[in-house]
Each structure stands twice: as structure tokens, then as C-alpha cells.
Amino acid sequence: MSSSSFLLGADGLYRCADLQHFLWQSHGFGTRMANPEVDVTLRQVHSDQVLNAHPLRDRQCEGDALVTDDLNRRIGVRTADCVPILLLDAGKRAVGAVHAGWRGTVAGIAARAIEKMHLYFGTHPDDIRAALGPCIRECCYEVGPEVASQFSTLFPEWPPVTGKQNLDLVEANRRHLSAAGVPADQIFDSGLCTVCLAEHFFSYRREPHNPGRMISAIGRLD
């Protein structure tokens, strides 16, 4: 995974500097202060369902990832601790937006999104740039053995799971992306923790009774 600059703009959005090199796209990761404009989102259900946004209205369907190569059609996901992943296909000018909670991560939703981009648009994994935005980090994400045990295959270096475990969802998704063929130096991590950075982000773990939501969105401009 490559280190990358995620810069906070005057509009209150974080952007991945490496994606910004591609002038045909627009993207942003939301904060407490602002969210990017978005045309199509889903009714998220913590699944591995990936949909083509082309025929959809906003919140028309259930699922947890969207892909598109439509012009001026911004797709997005809502998060408040789960990992938002924005995908950019530098070859076919297609994009994806993924909501990866622990259930979706176990199911490999990031890799499923790349499979769907290949099916719909002819995407090659080595053309993908993946930006992983603000989310709960290993420092703040303690889970019970019933959850941790479902990640034991993905983290073979762990000792046998017998109790609580701090879970690194970003690393889990990086491994899925890498296994799907995305080069390591084209996977970019914001390094931003939604729990630690209360002034910037909503967090379900920190505010379970009334968390807000951040939108992460991406679209093709030309």
C-alpha cells in the first residue's frame, strides 16, 4: 500500500492527491463540515452486492457498492466508521464507490467491485487506483471473537482467536484489493481515524445513539 497525501480542501472535503492527477474525474471524502455532491447512492445493508449505477435512481436499490462509466454521474457511499473505498480505472475511465464494513470486508466486496468493473467496462486490475478514506482504525476497533474469527483466514499471522481482537479493516481490504490484482503502489490509504478525529468525522463507535454520516463520492467528468 502506498503512502499518499489526502488533503483537506477549503470546501471541507478530503481528496486523494494521487487520484487528483486524473483530470477526467472528480471525487471527495466527506467530513462533519461538508459532503460531496452525489447522484446515486444505495440503501446500504452490509452486503457484497455491487450494482451498475447506469439505470438507477438515488437509493432505489439495496447494496453496498456502485460502479459506472457514465459521464457526470457521481456515485457514492455513506459511512460513519466503515471503510469508504473509491476506485478509478485509468484505462477505461470507469469508477467505483464501495462501503466496506466488517461483513462486507469478510465477503470481499472490494474485490467484487473490481470483478464487476471488469464485467461491465473491461477494467484490468492493474489499471485500478484505490483510495481508502477515513474510517475506524485498528487503534479503536476492538471486536469479539465471533467477528475476529471470520478474519482468521485473511490474517494467517494471527494467533488462534480466543478473545477480543483489534481489527484492521483497512489492511483487510488492502489484502483483498491486492489479491484481486491491484498493484500495491496504486492502493492509497488516508490514515485518518473517524474515532480519534472527533472534530473532523462522525463515528458510530463513538456516538452510537446519534451518529451522522459522511458521503464519499466519485464521478467521471469526460
Task: Give a description of the structure.
With 222 residues, the chain is of the alpha+beta class. It has one domain (2-136, 168-220): CNF1/YfiH-like putative cysteine hydrolases (4-Layer Sandwich). The chain has five helices and 14 strands. It has helices at residues 17-20, 102-106, 109-121, 145-148, 169-179, and strands at 2-3, 6-8, 14-16, 25-29, 50-52, 65-68, 75-79, 83-89, 94-100, 128-132, 142-143, 165-166, 187-189, 214-220. A seven-stranded mixed beta sheet has the order 1-13-10-8-9-6-5. A three-stranded antiparallel beta sheet has the order 4-14-7, with no helix packed on it. α3 (109-121) runs parallel beside α5. The two termini are 28 Å apart.
Q: What's this entry about, in short?
A:
The protein is an alpha+beta fold and 222 residues long. It has helices at residues 17-20, 102-106, 109-121, 145-148, 169-179, and strands at 2-3, 6-8, 14-16, 25-29, 50-52, 65-68, 75-79, 83-89, 94-100, 128-132, 142-143, 165-166, 187-189, 214-220.
Helicity, in percent? 10-25%
Main structural class: alpha+beta
Name the CATH class.
Answer: Alpha Beta
Low-confidence stretches: none
Protein topology:
Blueprint: E1 2-3, E2 6-8, E3 14-16, H1 17-20, E4 25-29, E5 50-52, E6 65-68, E7 75-79, E8 83-89, E9 94-100, H2 102-106, H3 109-121, E10 128-132, E11 142-143, H4 145-148, E12 165-166, H5 169-179, E13 187-189, E14 214-220
Parallel strand pairs: 1-13, 5-6, 10-13
Antiparallel strand pairs: 2-3, 4-14, 6-9, 7-14, 8-9, 8-10, 11-12
Helix pairs in contact: 3-5
